[in-house]
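Colleagues,

For the teaching module next term, I've prepared a clean inverse folding example: a structure given as tokens, and then the sequence designed for it. I'd like students to try predicting residues themselves before seeing the answer, so please don't circulate the second half yet.
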């Protein structure tokens, strides 16, 4: 149940409320994408999640993450059922009216689980520092501590091994209490060739494993009617 209006983004955003968008008996998955090339996997994550019964998805994207996929990619992957929210949806040119829904609050009320996949070095630093300078960081700062939140780091090897990254991860794990999974090559796992050509730690956890986190936590069951459509999309998208 997502908003499909083609009206001005700010008007569309203010029409979204958790009370209207949440559906009893469904799992509400909020996927956040940030400025890493691994954001290109977002349509695959969305498509796979939608192959499970009673699963609803919203996507929140930083401006830089949309350099790697488009809103149209998500529309194609979801059959037009998933909305991609951006800063413009919260802070449009129209004057805010007191009493109107606030997008980052409504999205955090809507979510049963939050996946930050990928989490760039920049967004990781912002989370650890408590910044609220865009829709993503405002939403994360406003999250209830009871909302399961998973970060999947993705960055260059030297960015990941930078001393500040260890400090940021420590705050995120120990003080904010988010679950951090990956990247590939961390904690004794095998590294891989990164988008920049370097070989080492830094690649985002495989997208299928990210979906698996949600499936395992909520016991999701496949929707048999979606399986064939999922396979056809994946084969075409990965060419």
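(Answer key — instructors only)
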């Amino acid at each position: 149940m997502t908003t499909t209006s083609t009206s001005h983004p700010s008007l569309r955003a203010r029409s979204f409320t958790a009370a209207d968008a949440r559906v009893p008996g469904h799992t509400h998955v909020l996927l956040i994408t940030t400025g890493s090339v691994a954001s290109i996997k977002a349509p695959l994550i969305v498509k796979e999640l939608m192959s499970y019964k009673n699963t609803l998805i919203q996507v929140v994207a930083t401006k830089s993450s949309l350099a790697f996929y488009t809103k149209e990619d998500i529309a194609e992957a979801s059959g037009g059922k998933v909305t991609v929210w951006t800063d413009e949806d919260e802070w449009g040119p129209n004057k805010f009216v007191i009493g109107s829904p606030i997008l980052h609050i409504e999205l955090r009320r809507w979510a049963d689980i939050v996946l930050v996949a990928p989490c760039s070095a920049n967004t990781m630093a912002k989370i650890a520092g408590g910044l609220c300078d865009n829709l993503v960081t405002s939403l994360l700062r406003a999250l209830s501590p009871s909302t399961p939140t998973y970060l999947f780091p993705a960055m260059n090897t030297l960015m990941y091994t930078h001393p500040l990254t260890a400090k940021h991860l420590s705050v995120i794990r120990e003080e904010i209490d988010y679950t951090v999974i990956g990247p590939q090559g961390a904690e004794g796992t095998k590294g891989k060739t990164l988008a920049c050509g370097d070989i080492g730690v830094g690649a985002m956890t495989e997208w299928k494993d990210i979906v698996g986190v949600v499936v395992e936590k909520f016991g999701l069951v496949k929707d048999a009617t979606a399986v064939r459509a999922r396979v056809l999309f994946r084969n075409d998208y990965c060419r």
